[in-house]
Amino acid sequence: MSGDKEPEKHLLRHVTAQQLGQLKKKALEARELSYSPYSKFRVGCCILTKENKFVLGANVENASYGGAICAERCAAVKAVTGGMKEWLAIAISGDRMEDTISPCGICRQFIREFASGEFPVIMLNGDGSKTVVKPFEELLPLSFGPDSL
Amino acid sequence: MSGDKEPEKHLLRHVTAQQLGQLKKKALEARELSYSPYSKFRVGCCILTKENKFVLGANVENASYGGAICAERCAAVKAVTGGMKEWLAIAISGDRMEDTISPCGICRQFIREFASGEFPVIMLNGDGSKTVVKPFEELLPLSFGPDSL
Amino acid sequence: MSGDKEPEKHLLRHVTAQQLGQLKKKALEARELSYSPYSKFRVGCCILTKENKFVLGANVENASYGGAICAERCAAVKAVTGGMKEWLAIAISGDRMEDTISPCGICRQFIREFASGEFPVIMLNGDGSKTVVKPFEELLPLSFGPDSL
Amino acid sequence: MSGDKEPEKHLLRHVTAQQLGQLKKKALEARELSYSPYSKFRVGCCILTKENKFVLGANVENASYGGAICAERCAAVKAVTGGMKEWLAIAISGDRMEDTISPCGICRQFIREFASGEFPVIMLNGDGSKTVVKPFEELLPLSFGPDSL
Ligand SMILES: [Zn+2]
Ligand SMILES: [Zn+2]
Ligand SMILES: [Zn+2]
Ligand SMILES: [Zn+2]
Prior knowledge:
- 4 copies of one chain form a homotetramer.
- Chain A contains 5 helices and 5 strands, in the order H-H-E-E-H-E-H-E-E-H.
- The longest helix of chain A has 13 residues, at 17-29.
- Chain A has a single domain, classed as Cytidine Deaminase, domain 2 (3-Layer(aba) Sandwich).
- The first copy, chain A, is α+β, with helices and mostly antiparallel strands.
- Chain A has helices spanning 6-11, 17-29, 71-81, 105-112, 136-139; strands spanning 44-49, 54-58, 87-93, 120-124, 131-135.
- The mean pLDDT of chain A is 96.
- In chain A, helix 4 (105-112) links the parallel strand 3 (87-93) and strand 4 (120-124).
- A 5-stranded mixed sheet of chain A has the order 2-1-3-4-5.
- The first copy, chain A, is 28% helix and 19% strand.
- The interface between A and D is medium-sized, with 27 and 27 residues.
- Bound molecules: zinc ion (4 copies).
- Residues 70, 72, 103-104, 106-107 of chain C line the site of one zinc ion (ZN).
């Protein structure tokens, strides 16, 4: 993180400091829910919905590797099928301490369906001591979305 | 359904009549949660877990068709990341009245990770007036699972 | 394999002994084309098309495990986009000597789009000394296909 | 396209004008190979490999929408299992005249495994009269790749 927190503050203007704290904490805790016997790479995720609900997700892998569903898509289907399609922010955590985790392209595509360009994506390292926040459109520019069909 | 209900009764011996009624009802209702603007093909699903919880799922599609997550996988990741990896039965519904719906191979593969061979799969038509029940191993024989690696 | 080869012979009636030999050989060789740094589980595949072409495939994995494409789907997209949508047989190989490999449910679903119920699936062990042959419909019974929509 | 072609020229410095012409032409032609009965949205793709081979791809869909494999991933598995893992450029075409097509996030993730940050992605409209060229890293910034695990 650069010292300049202004863009990040603007991005998170719809999220209170308390909500942000909860969101990070829950994203870190969500790793406990991971089923990842193949990669042994646990990922946790939390989506804060417009209704102020925190929806947790974790990666669920499969013996056929291509069957794996990431933490972000897990949380997304839970939110959507829970009737919550509008989201304020998403936070994602992995176990690595040295780097913050980044959502894969499959999940960016899945989220694209529901997120605005300004949707804040909060990427954490293993204990939340490092944080990177980006607006969704910076992670999937020139995206292929509902309007592309 | 044949008139001979004995194999089905045996298969569902861990599920009470009341639970079965609930399971079907919830699988039918779950279609309301579907996000399927591309196929306009709503699918609902309900998993009954060992803890007697009913976990609902519905299909969530994407502008990139390959990004779609079916109802069964939706319910499965909810159950697994809800700490419930042991399941008593799954029920699935579509909108077609004339036929019962069948899980796709992707979902069979995903379920394979958690289901025993005798896990009952209950396939419904649009109002639940038709039902087919099969043990999981009949739907994915000679499966590729955790032991195959 | 049981000693009774009659069902298998019937299944392979559109394939000559020479073609069958080639098909197995190529499915075994195709493992060399595998990109599988994550699972280290190489899979090879060969589809014999109606035009008498042998189309090879191998698994291609991804750092995001869910992005992996199996050998069977690799060969299938090559055949389809090569203008060859009608197939006589498919053979699949893994590295395990003790068991023959089995296609995952994702690939069964993908193949479903192009295969008839009698399409022969030839499953091999690591050196082709063990072989199991099944008609496609036995591997994906009650399938979800184009007619299900 | 802006009038300033300098960044694009730099990006395509390893591709001759003749190769670029061929690449676009083949990406447009590749749409003919599409199997897309569900979306009726044909996509074509061509990868130019370091060996100066043009590898074509097209989207192949499935009755289970999540089974679809896009044109880009089709071409990618063909190149990789053809022994060609180093690529000079990729071109993609759709049928829309008004906009250039954009690769979905799933395909960006798949390509990530093999592409450098400067890998040029050429996006075309329906007849190639509009072109947008971007370096891969601009389409999937902060990517999740082999080093992330
Ligand atoms: Zn992901
Ligand atoms: Zn499915
Ligand atoms: Zn497979
Ligand atoms: Zn794509």
